[in-house]
């Protein structure tokens, strides 16, 4: 019986530290949102749009 109790106690101690806390989720969410905003700004810039349009036009010309 003691062995089972010890194993259960060890498992509970490990389980308490598993996963992220609410503060870590908040920081992770803010970081992901900031990264998404940065990517949006890059992709919507004139230079990147021209490059993407050029790639698409070349691909369509090759398909003809």
UniProtKB/TrEMBL annotation:
It comes from the Bacteria. It holds the Pfam family DUF4244. This is DUF4244 domain-containing protein. It comes from Actinomadura gamaensis.
């Amino acid at each position: 019986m003691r062995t089972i109790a010890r194993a259960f106690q060890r498992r509970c101690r490990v389980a308490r530290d598993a996963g992220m806390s609410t503060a870590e989720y908040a920081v992770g969410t803010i970081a992901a949102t900031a990264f998404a905003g940065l990517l949006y700004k890059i992709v919507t810039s004139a230079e990147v749009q021209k490059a993407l349009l050029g790639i698409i036009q070349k691909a369509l010309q090759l398909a003809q």
